């Protein structure tokens, strides 16, 4: 408790809902919190119009702000009004890919002022938020991380990874198999008029690991605004329809993109802003379209899934280069029975799990029984000391939850422990998702 006392002596932890005035501008407390977040992520503060727009998005997403404020700030410092640590959470649905989903406590805007590091701010904010998440009925928390080493100590596991890839146009076409349907160029405004969201809803329902998007994300992915909230003037859009379809409601895929001119002998790059597909046919056809666009050298996509079918489809698969691979969606289980009963399973069977959790939320021993693809969970012990087929930390339960990460892999890494070496493979077979997880939403 001494560390908590020290925190309370130095900081005041405040939870509040963002608010705006009669003109839609953020109120002083909300504006100060926004400025602290911008400082933490090296982002310019928006003008008055942009700040009002951002605040309206926070309200639409029903965010809960958290700030750690210095009790005795130095005169003239931003700490007189800005929080030294920021944190927010809001409701965000995670898809299991079979039409089922679970609401997650989505965490974002996590910053700590460099002058206040190693004083327990992040731990206090995270503990407060997860306790509130449990009280609000969340079974799992989620986040996307700017750094990969922060969140495991709080019980989060990396559940989806993604890749940034480049495909060289001159070596890519023709594809090995013919594509189907029709691609048409449209305006971003037409896409934003309802068609784009309808396609995303279909993608979301069928794709394990997909998460609904923040209100502020839509204008950016549709190409109406840039990352700083200013009007975008360089983004184009196209849609795919199945063969013979003509109606707007028939659109089953879309892509938005911009082209960055090369200088000094460097490649001209077509950058994919957003690529959303409700069918595999739409995905391949939109890729073929992008690779057919003249006056550029490389198509770059930063949201590629690890088993990208484009690799197999290309005329020369060496045209496809992986620039970078990193963690994407992180999950933190708060209620083991609620999470495990919410998702589908590939095969029936039974397995027992001893889950350790340093923060205490999910610790226990549980038995999962799956019949006809649906699970029931029985808690057999209040701690992780009961008899179990598998022993793992709550972070590793979060990692395997969607089915993108294998318990067999984590066993090989020394993170999942089993007396019977076949047990991790049994759990892996149960967790196989209906499709490969693909997360394309940051928050």
Automatic annotation (TrEMBL):
InterPro entries: Acetyltransf_17 (IPR041380), Acetyltransferase_Eis (IPR051554), Acyl_CoA_acyltransferase (IPR016181), Eis_dom (IPR025559), GNAT_dom (IPR000182), NAcTrfase_Eis (IPR022902), SCP2_sterol-bd_dom_sf (IPR036527). Its EC number is 2.3.1.-. The active site is at 151 (proton donor), 443 (proton acceptor). It comes from the Bacteria. Residues 1-180 form the N-acetyltransferase domain. Homohexamer; trimer of dimers. Belongs to the acetyltransferase Eis family. This is GNAT family N-acetyltransferase. It comes from Curtobacterium citri. The lineage of its organism: Bacteria, Bacillati, Actinomycetota, Actinomycetes, Micrococcales.
